[in-house]
Design goal:
The protein has 64 residues and is mainly alpha-helical. Helix content is 78%, strand content 0%. It contains three helices and no strands. The longest helix is centred in the middle third of the chain and has 38 residues, at 3-40.
C-alpha cells in the first residue's frame, strides 16, 4: 500500500469517526427533544404520578 493510499484510508477513517460522532450528537439531541415534548404534554398531576415536577423536565431530557 502506498503512502498516498494509507493517507487516504486514514483520512476516510477520520471522516467516518467524525460522521459517527455528529450522527450520535444529532440522535441524542432528537431524543432529548422528543422526551421534552412528551413530558411537557403531561399534566402536573401526571408528572407527580411518575415522580416528577415540571421543573424536572429539562434535567430528565438531558439525562442528568
Amino acid at each position: 500500500m502506498s503512502a498516498v493510499e494509507m493517507s487516504h484510508n486514514h483520512a476516510a477513517a477520520g471522516f467516518g469517526g467524525v460522521f459517527a460522532r455528529v450522527t450520535a450528537m444529532i440522535a441524542a439531541w432528537n431524543d432529548a427533544r422528543i422526551t421534552r415534548r412528551e413530558l411537557s404534554a403531561l399534566t402536573d398531576r401526571e408528572l407527580t404520578d411518575i415522580g416528577l415536577a415540571r421543573g424536572d423536565i429539562e434535567r430528565v431530557a438531558r439525562g442528568i
